[in-house]
Design goal:
Layout: E1 3-4, H1 9-39, H2 45-73, E2 82-84, H3 85-96, E3 101-105, E4 111-113, H4 114-129, E5 135-142, E6 149-155, H5 165-169, E7 172-173, H6 183-194, E8 199-204, E9 207-212
Parallel strand pairs: 3-5
Antiparallel strand pairs: 1-7, 2-4, 5-6, 6-9, 8-9
């Protein structure tokens, strides 16, 4: 039994900010730890080299996540702005391709309304949640032109639909309330409805299909 979520603009903004902060805590914390190691005078050269490598990798991760979140959750230009799918691919590939999960991009290079591109990026996040052990996410289109929708296939070991996600995509939850973890699929549903679409998940053999219609 689920209950429709009533969420005002301030709560939506606060929860999305919490989600972005959650994504950045780990790499920024690693940078701080690396700097603390460098500040220790007794650190040997091997330890200092390790700390520098940690800082470099964590800074790249933080930058990648910030750029992706800016496009997926941010304003991304003025009202009515369009975004190049090729730019979206660059952001998505940097965010998703991590050695555990691979992105296959079968979408054309073209400009789409920003909310449709934001929807695609958020659908990719949802797809990643269906393969917690990693795997492959294949992104394709449904239809063509400015009214294009999307079909993602997530395949990997123990692929499954997270129990709460279908309801959240519909704007509902078991408690009628949301936290920073639940806000992302809820926001995906908001974007879909703003585009006149609906997002559904279904199993397809050993894969999960996330598609608009």
């Amino acid at each position: 039994m689920t209950t429709a979520v009533a969420l005002d603009a301030l709560d939506l903004a606060a929860l999305l900010c919490s989600r972005v902060c959650h994504d950045l805590i780990s790499p920024t914390g690693a940078i701080v730890n690396g700097l603390e190691v460098l500040d220790e005078k007794e650190s040997d050269q091997e330890t200092r080299d390790f700390a520098l490598d940690l800082i470099r990798k964590s800074a790249r991760t933080a930058s990648t996540r910030l750029q992706f979140c800016r496009l997926a959750f941010g304003a991304a230009g003025s009202a009515g702005a369009q975004i190049d799918l090729d730019d979206a691919q660059t952001m998505a590939r940097a965010f998703i391709d991590d050695g555990k999960t691979r992105l296959v991009w079968n979408l054309p290079r073209m400009l789409l309304p920003k909310n449709r591109v934001k929807l695609l990026l958020n659908m990719l996040i949802v797809a990643g949640q269906t393969i917690p052990r990693g795997g492959t996410i294949t992104a394709g289109s449904v239809g063509e032109g400015q009214s294009m929708g999307f079909r993602l296939i997530a395949s990997g070991l123990n692929a499954r639909i997270p129990p709460s996600v279908p309801a959240l995509l519909e704007g509902a939850s078991e408690t009628g309330a949301l936290d920073a973890h639940a806000i992302q699929p809820f926001y995906t549903g908001l974007l879909a409805r703003a585009c006149g679409l609906k997002v559904e998940l279904k199993g397809d053999g050993e894969a999960i299909v996330i598609a608009t219609h």
